[in-house]
Amino acid sequence: MGCIFCKIISKQIPAKIIQETSHSIAFLDAFPLVKGHTLIIPKNHHMKIQDLNHEENSDLFSLVHKVLSKVDKLTGSTLVAVHNGKDAGQEVPHVHVHLVPRAQGDSAGPIHTMFKTIKFSDSEIEEIYNKLK
Fold first, then answer.
1. How many domains does the chain have?
2. What is the structure's pLDDT at 1?
3. Residue in 45, 83, 96, 98 annotated catalytic
4. 76: phi > 0 → left, psi -120 to 50 → alpha, else beta; which?
5. Average pLDDT estimate for 55-64
6. Gap between the Cα atoms of 6 and 52, Å rounded
7. Which of 21, 42, 92, 116 is buried most deeply by CB count within 10 Å?
8. Which is higher by pLDDT, 105 or 53?
């Protein structure tokens, strides 16, 4: 398989592995945004979170929780991000959770700075609310 994350899992490509479980692995990002930028991935190849079975999902986010405590000690604040699909910005089509240490003045902003401000009507909000509930 051509997936770079699958190659890391199978040890074909070296990585700075932080922690590993039966279903997940955490390692330093090879192209970090900041010092300590960490990725946590399931060992089985899945493109989206909803493709994980219950056990894989629980294991992945349990490892996120454990490693997050370590990463958060670097700066005191951490961005937790998942790009769930290509249109959401996912560059490698394998589920991965980014843990990015954040610090005041690091030039990155809150999520609302990533998008243009759009005003939705009450009826549009009601329509989407009914679809999601």
1. 1
2. 62
3. 96
4. left
5. 98
6. 15
7. 42
8. 53
Give the Cβ contact number of residue 21 at 10 Å. 15
Q: Please give the span between the terminal C-alpha atoms of the chain, in angstroms, as a whole number.
A: 38
User: What mean pLDDT is predicted for residues 6-35?
Assistant: 97
Residue 101 is inside which H or E element, if any? strand 97-101
Whether residue 68 lies inside any domain: the answer is yes
Instruction: Let me know if residue 113 belongs to a domain.
Output: no
What gap in Å lies between CA 75 and CA 120, rounded to an integer? 36
CATH number for the domain harbouring residue 77: 3.30.428.10
As a whole number, mean pLDDT of residues 25-53 equals 97
Does 133 map to a domain? no
pLDDT of the residue at 24: 98
Please report whether residue 98 resides in a domain: yes
> Average pLDDT, whole number, for the chain?
95
Domain ranges, residue 75? 4-108
Q: Is 96 a catalytic residue?
A: yes
How many alpha carbons lie under 13 Å from residue 14 in its C-beta half-sphere? Answer: 1
Residue 3: burial class (beta carbons within 10 Å; 0-12, 13-18, 19+): middle
